[in-house]
Known about the structure:
This protein is α+β, with helices and mostly antiparallel strands. It has helices at 25-37, 64-75; strands spanning 2-5, 11-14, 45-49, 57-60.
Amino acid sequence: MGLVDEADGGVALKVAVTAAPEGGKANAALLELLARAFCLPPRDFAVVRGATDRRKIVAVTGAPAALAARIAEGLRPWSRA
């Protein structure tokens, strides 16, 4: 897991899972991995775009200020600031 630069100037989180991309297994593994990384319950994560694609958009449910702090902490090992 780590941050990668996007062609449009943005930054994306790159994650690899070993689960097979069939029957939603890889998506479930992704959500579990994110939940562990950000110390949140898996139910707070959902793939909202790209369920069958390699590139996904994941929504996180919760109070915005608390989520921002928790996500910033989880990304600290890869922060470039």
